[in-house]
Amino acid sequence: MIEPVSPLSPAGDRHFDGLADKFSASLYGGTRGELRLALLDRLLPEMLELEGQPLLDVGGGLGQLAGWFAERGHAVTLAEPSGEMLVRAREHLAGHDVSFLQVPLQALPEQAPGPWALIACHAVLEWLADPRGALATLAGLLAPGGQLSLMVFNRDALRLSNVVKGNLEKAVADRLEGKGLRKRLTPISPLTHGQVEAWSAENDLVIREVAGIRVFADYLRQPPESEADRERLLALEHRYCRVDPHWRLGRYLLYTLERPMHAPQEATP
Ligand SMILES: C[S@@+](CC[C@H](N)C(=O)[O-])C[C@H]1O[C@@H](n2cnc3c(N)ncnc32)[C@H](O)[C@@H]1O
């Protein structure tokens, strides 16, 4: 019997080969994708200190974020293991100051060691078998004083949306994550805020800012139909995305993590 080829990488990560069309259509083709980009457009300048630093975009996907930074004067290096995603990113970013590396995050200490003053890693950790190790790798690439814009898929929001949709059995069994097989877009390692807090502390990263991305939109019974309602929804998302308790149930959690200028003092005996 021929074993089916696993879509997972040897490290157990879900590279997006075979998923590019579905990802592009279902995540960026509708209101949810539009909202995510509109919120990032407002939040990135509010949450990061941007001075045109070179940017390493890890798991850069189709290249939307790389384009945003390139248009604001940052020289961007987009690292992405999936050849299929890279083809689309190159098309999307034609004419921009972006260089491309076909490598996974785990190879970056060798392939692009930096150190980097600015790194973005959006919606990638949840597709990895070892997100904790990945955060340690990212921390090691940051220069002292460097900033990491980290966005992760929020496990607590995934539970709520499953309950809202009536998937009670799944929620009771706490079987929320996907397996990364076939063409499913349910991440294999959704994360909690507690994990990000703990793993940041382990790596001496300070959480400077946090926001929820789509704190309301994914729970609506009906998507907004008129342009005016889409504008209202964006206004509400922006108003409450950094307000407790709403940010905690954003579909994604967006962080600014900073590596302090000076290593923390060793405790004196
Ligand atoms: C949900 S997409 C996010 C893309 C983009 N950052 C965005 O925000 O739209 C996840 C991306 O992570 C990539 N990925 C999967 N495993 C990876 C790894 N080990 N290192 C770097 N990227 C990886 C996938 O190929 C895919 O392009």
Helix content: 25-40%
**How many domain modules?**
1
- In the sheet with the most strands, the strands line up as 3-2-1-4-5-7-6
For this structure, what is the CATH homologous superfamily?
Vaccinia Virus protein VP39
Q: Classify the fold: give the CATH topology.
A: Rossmann fold
Low-confidence stretches: none
Q: Main sheet? A: 7 strands, mixed
Order of secondary-structure elements: HHEHEHEHEHEHHHEHE
From the alpha carbons, calculate the radius of gyration and give it in angstroms.
Answer: 18 Å
Mean pLDDT, nearest integer?
93
Strand content: 15-25%
- Would you identify the CATH architecture? 3-Layer(aba) Sandwich
Task: Identify the bound ligands.
Answer: S-adenosylmethionine
Structural class of the helix and strand makeup? alpha/beta
What global shape is seen? globular
| Cα distance spanning the termini | 63 Å
Number of helices: 10
The CATH class is Alpha Beta
Count the strands? Answer: 7
List the helices and strands and how they pair.
Layout: H1 20-28, H2 31-47, E1 55-58, H3 64-71, E2 76-79, H4 83-92, E3 98-101, H5 108-111, E4 116-122, H6 131-141, E5 142-153, H7 155-164, H8 168-173, H9 193-202, E6 206-213, H10 227-240, E7 252-258
Parallel strand pairs: 1-2, 1-4, 2-3, 4-5
Antiparallel strand pairs: 5-7, 6-7
Helix pairs in contact: 2-10, 6-9
Bound molecules: S-adenosylmethionine.
